[in-house]
Amino acid sequence: MHRAGHPDRRALLFGGLVVTTVALAGCSSTSAAPAATSASPEGRPASPAAAFARLMNGNKRWVSGDLQHPDRDPNRRQFVAEGQEPFGAILSCIDSRVPPELLFDTGLGDLYVMRTGGEAVGPVVTGSVEYGPMTSGTPLIVVLGHQRCGAVEAAYKSIRDGKPLPGNLEAIVKALRPAYEQAVREGGADPVDGMARAQVTLTAADLRSNQDLAPLVRKGVLAVVGAYYSLDTGEVEVLAGAPS
């Protein structure tokens, strides 16, 4: 991502690392922690591959209807009240039909979730995505686009027709322009869907290679996955970056 003009954010994030580490350590003490049975039965995945497998297994349950609804009771609420260690960070669209916690069958304290129109990004959004991996070792980021994305369609038509959208909606259009340009170059029967997929892969690649996350990816302690959700089937399709 473009970093110019934002020198203080990295300092704040790394400063937050110390505070967060101390807070989490305090929450793990015997006197402060609720009963161990309040934790997720599986524990936090230790690797990007394990975290990714848990997400995708949850999506399989969502598709089949065989849901477990994990980590959604008062005991879990009490357990995570004093600290959290989410195993994944999801950047998805604001669309009401695409709630990550549901379609991955997860619960309280399992995921950091950022939602913007068409997965549009900027410094604040990028910082929010970086927060878990950089402060508490969250091993997985997923950029999740979806079928029939209204934000992508509106941006596509705005750019194609040269008609700016009102207010701050134009900021979304600007953020999605690279995906529009890639979709136009590649062609295809459904350019809006092509743009939605391009937005996912471009954003995931940008996060994977940025100066703060790239070292974690190279070490193998973080994976950045691009994925696409089908409104028709409920299934999540991996587009890029699945950890082995």
TrEMBL record:
Cofactor, how bound (note): Binds 1 zinc ion per subunit.
UniProt xrefs under InterPro entries: Carbonic_anhydrase, Carbonic_anhydrase_sf, TAT_signal
Keyword Metal-binding on entry: yes
Keyword Metal-binding: yes
Molecular functions (GO terms): carbonate dehydratase activity; zinc ion binding
Signal peptide annotation: 1-25
SUPFAM superfamilies from the UniProt entry: beta-carbonic anhydrase, cab
Gene3D superfamilies, sorted: Carbonic anhydrase
Binding residues annotated for Zn(2+), in chain numbering: 93, 95, 146, 149
Tree of life domain: Bacteria
Cofactor: Zn(2+)
Job of this protein: Catalyzes the reversible hydration of carbon dioxide to form bicarbonate.
Family per similarity comment: Belongs to the beta-class carbonic anhydrase family.
PANTHER family recorded: CARBONIC ANHYDRASE, CARBONIC ANHYDRASE 2
Name of this protein: Carbonic anhydrase
Naturally occurring in which organism (per UniProt): Streptomyces avermitilis
